[in-house]
Amino acid sequence: MMNAGTQGxxxxxxxxxxxxxxxxxxxxxxxxxxxxxxxxxxxxxxxHVRGVLVQDGQAVPVVDLSRVLGQALRTVKARPTVxxxxxxxxxxxxxxxxxxxxxxxxxxxxxxxxxxxxxxxAAMPVDFLVGMGRHGDGLVLLMDVERxxxxxxxxxxxxxxxGTAAPGPAHRRS
Length: 174
Known about the structure:
This protein has two helices and eleven strands; from the N terminus they run βββββαββββββα. The protein is mostly beta strands. The chain has one domain (9-161): CATH 2.40.50.180. The chain has a six-stranded mixed beta sheet with strand order 8-1-2-11-10-9, with no helix packed on it. It has a five-stranded mixed beta sheet with strand order 3-6-7-5-4. A hairpin with a 2-residue loop joins β4 and β5 (58-64). The model is unreliable at 1-6 and 164-174 (pLDDT under 50).
């Protein structure tokens, strides 16, 4: 994300909303946004895997970001907006879909606009949050999509979408 070499220089982020909360991820990690995505269900998927998005003959696992974020059960759209992100798994680039409620416009944030991520206590895993950005009159939580899922969770999602399900339940983030 931001380092000493980028001090003061604005970096682009994609702004999106999940459960009324505002988040942003670096646009360098976003491959595309698919509005009203048609997802195919995945048999025996863990609760955080919403389904797969088939693009160009490839299955992209889609996680329900509200479940990953520990938000209370709520009504979800049948055809969500999916942010397709680039992540690494075992040193290999992979595509991971994030089901979100909506996508806002791009944000340009400089190091002056970013403050450290708060501690939310043990109730919510937040190791994927890298800071908060000032945007207008509010704040957006800055997300590192690389750290959103644990490697076992990501591997499980990838194996499910390739048709070779991993044995046993998905591992929970510790």
